[in-house]
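U., I forgot to send this yesterday:
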Amino acid sequence: TRRKRAPLTTTLSQHGPYSWRKKEARKVRVAFAAVALSLAAPCALSQSYPSKPVRLIVGFAPGGVSDVPARIVAAKLGEVWGTPVVVENRTGAGGIIATDVAARAPADGYTLLLVTAGLLAINPSIYKKLPYDPVKDFAAISMIGSTPNVLLVHPSAQTTTVRAFITYAKANPGKVSIGSAGVGTSRHLTMELFKSITATDIVHVPYKGGASALTDLLGGQVPAIVSGVTTALTSIKAGKVRALGVTSAKRSPQLPELPTIAESGVPGFEVTAWTGLCAPAALPKPLVAKLNADMVKVLGMPDTQRRLAEQGVDTTPTTPEQFAEFIKSEIVKWAKVVKDAGITPE
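Result:
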């Protein structure tokens, strides 16, 4: 038997232009729904975040000048979130190991990195090859704060001011030495910038840490060092070392009577050892915004500010955009200093 052909009107209604438009419209609706879901997912994630413990990677040993502020902030974030923030110390290679681990971690907000000037601004100029890009591989969250360094001399030194130190160094080129916590540290770079601006010929003496440098200054083995204020505060107040000036733009609350180096004849001189918080680069923007808001909240707490001030940290919360731009400017600043000084890793 011959199969009956469907009526022409039926064929047109099922396969004609009207049916085609309905199918295309349905495709468009599905596409819009998919986009809406993709946009809503990060927002929903930020609302439920965090639902498990968060790790904060620190590239330095427990109890150090960077580790203590990290633990203060971690504890406060844990209180705000109701979820533990666990500090994970990954030491080695000047913080490069920790930074690489954080860069490779999932961008889900459950891995954060304590960043410093050394990790993101100085190391890129000192090391020819790094396993991470300081700008492309990280999402800036907020700066935590900054700590000034301080120029110290032995109490037996005849120089009592920064001006006198510069005059003496110029009169004795190559005969004055300054110790630091090691090659490529902020204290080393502080000294190199000081040499550059003052046009002095000073010999750098690197140590394996700021404590070792301070010990040799106390013992008279080195005539001067650049130290962190907190590290040297007890020795300064006991009169065991003489502080000439702090490296920040404003005076340190811990040493309010001590002038800055900029005040003491080196206009524009400013160096601080800063710390901040970053996450892997692909972190969704809603999560970046939440992390920043919670960081600003924590850093605004009087108890947080008091505890950080005890460590010599001046709290300076920022927006993610401000912190990202600051990191870029620091990379440019220290690249010039490293190049002019010819610094290479040991």
